[in-house]
Amino acid sequence: MTVFSRLLPSIVSAYALQGVLAAIFVPQANEKYYDLGGALGFLSTTLVSLYYPSLKAKLWDRLPVPVPALTTFAPRQLLATACLGLWSARLGSFLVARALRAGGDARFDDVKHDPPKFSAFWMAQATWVLLVGLPVYTLNALPPAAHPPLGVRDCAALVLFAGSFLFEIAADRQKSAWRRTKENKEHEEKFITSGLWSVSRHPNYVGEVGIQTGIALLATASLQTAYFPRGAVALAALSPLTTYFLLRKVSGVPPLEKSGDKKFGSDPKWLEYKRTVPVFFPWGPKE
């Protein structure tokens, strides 16, 4: 089995799970568990990518092989799998809890009662699961013995992942705390401008891009081995590039900025916030 053919189970896994979830929740017009579906997609597809060869041998080929212990995998496989799993579990649980508290997810107000469109969102999520997790799925397709030892690049990748992960958590918690105090009428601010939100208008998204960049960087050494054709490392780049494009240009920043302009467009504080605080990266442009 070639390395790239081993990606097929991951592709099937990503789309199959979202298809099952769509079959359950689209008829109900229920969007509350959409983000949970994304988290489960990452977790299940990552496990499929890691264990598929042994499961195929055991269940399909009927060979008397045991399910491999974690110690049989390469350290890079375990680290990348753990990073992707930790991020997806944390983000998925956070978003689902937020949707349940709010009684729904406003992103789907216009589509959840239109089954074809709502189904398309679930399939789009499958594509997101596939592209963002691609560095890890591809990494896990490589036999454990073929992975090079961890080096300085991998240490830098883990530092970037950890720092970005904490950055995203801090941004989310700061906004949640701000929202609670507003609900308790402890302040009358219309929008958050403190903490990390004073250096970026969307710091949680900045953390997200850093997380995927760290995971992709962790995969690059293995993707540059002789098992892969030249240029395969570009597969790893798809993850942070896709993440940045979606957040910065499609489903993240644009609708939030548009919503802010609609709510606070004439407010001098909002105009000053937009004039002085970068829209994305703390060192980036204001627009």
**What is the N-to-C succession of helices and strands?**
HHHHHHHHH
Number of DSSP helical runs? 9
Strands, count:
0
Class per helix and strand makeup = mainly alpha
Distance between the termini: 48 Å
How many domain regions?
Answer: 2
Portion in strands:
under 5%
Major β-sheet profile:
none
Net shape = globular
Word description of this protein:
The chain has nine helices and no strands. It has 287 residues and is an all-alpha fold. It folds into two domains: 1-78 and 103-147, no CATH class; 148-287, no CATH class. Helix 1 crosses helix 2 (34-60). The longest helix is centred in the middle third of the chain and has 32 residues, at 152-183. The mean pLDDT is 92.
Write the topology of this structure:
Layout: H1 7-25, H2 34-60, H3 75-102, H4 115-140, H5 152-183, H6 203-223, H7 234-250, H8 253-264, H9 268-276
Helix pairs in contact: 1-2, 1-4, 2-3, 2-4, 3-4, 3-6, 4-6, 4-7, 5-6, 6-7
Descriptive labels:
UstE-like, 2 domains, membrane, DUF1295-domain-containing protein, mainly alpha, 9 helices, transmembrane helix, 0% strand, globular, 287 residues
